[in-house]
Amino acid sequence: MVKRLFSFWGAVSLLILFFSCKSAPKGFQVNPLDLLDNENAFFLAVPKAADPELVTNIIKTNVPDISDKDVKTALDHIDKAYIGLSSNKKVTTYQCAVSCNIPKAFIPNIFSRKKGFSKTVFETGTRSFDIYNNDTLNISVPDGTTMVLGRNVPAMLEVYESLWENGIDVSLSENSFLDEKHYEYLSSCTDEIRFFANKPQSFLTLLTGVNLDLKLQWVSGAMRKDLKNPNQYLLDLNFNFKNTKFVKAGKAVLTLAFGLTDSFTDSDSPTELSVTGIKLNKKQIYKLLTL
Predict the structure, then answer these.
(1) Fewer CB within 10 A of the end CB, N or C, for the chain?
(2) For the segment 158-200, what is each residue's pLDDT rounded down to a tens digit?
């Protein structure tokens, strides 16, 4: 699974090293976030500006022989990635939709048979899209500013086509798994990694290493660089409990799990609990992004 998620950044880096011009779609602009589906339990928005070093490390891991100059070129053409994770007891799957700058004319050369890819054509009814795949990766580039990969690429392309033809009003009504507040929260991030989990149990288990049953509706939060320590992030978390009676017990469990003392902050909602400034080693974030 680590290799499959790293392949996302590797695919972006390989693509953008072959071009220097920009391509723009002729239809409505599509927010890549709208292309993730409701099978995902955990959503991340990862802007390049949040931590270029993180993206650099992932690219170098996936493309070991890449030069520093080419890494810089790659970083210049990556904007933001949205990642959706879905897991059960046996497997974790992912979807990625990325905002970038990739002219379609270069795609067939990069995802060629010589490089181990095969191509299928997916028909939506009004348009056709090329899907490239190998043993670990399914990927499509519907326009020069959007790339999708991972689980259920054909469905992502169908949503893309609908939004491209009809505009953004379709997106929020169909993406019922993200309310307007959290949709805007993920879409608007520019300098921090933001996330939202509407099925938060697996997220908390991953983050703490402990199976925590906190009776939660959702968890959201952000990871930002710690200016005093380049090896760690500062983590903010917002917990929404199913009802008020679980808040006190939840606070006690979180205090033990994270070693918290005075990190809790007041919230406007009686069912919400906020925690700020948790120190988190970057290696834990790498683990989080490579489930």
Answers:
(1) N
(2) 999 988 888 765 444 455 567 888 999 999 999 999 999 988 8
- The residue among 70, 53, 68, 56 whose CA lies nearest residue 14 is 70
Q: What pairs with residue 233 in β-bridges? A: 225, 280
Edge-to-edge strand ranges of the sheet holding 264-265: 118-123, 128-133, 138-143, 146-150, 92-100, 78-87, 42-47, 193-197, 216-225, 232-241, 272-281, 264-265
Model pTM? 0.82
* E-assigned strand segments in 10-155: 42-47, 78-87, 92-100, 118-123, 128-133, 138-143, 146-150
User: Which helix (H) or strand (E) is 234 found in, with range?
Assistant: strand 232-241
Q: What are phi and psi of 226, to 5 degrees?
A: -90, 110
Task: Say how far apart CA 63 and CA 114 lie, in whole Å.
Answer: 17
pLDDT confidence of residue 198: 84
What digits encode the pLDDT tens for the residues 241-287? 998 888 888 888 777 776 665 667 767 789 998 888 888 888 777 76
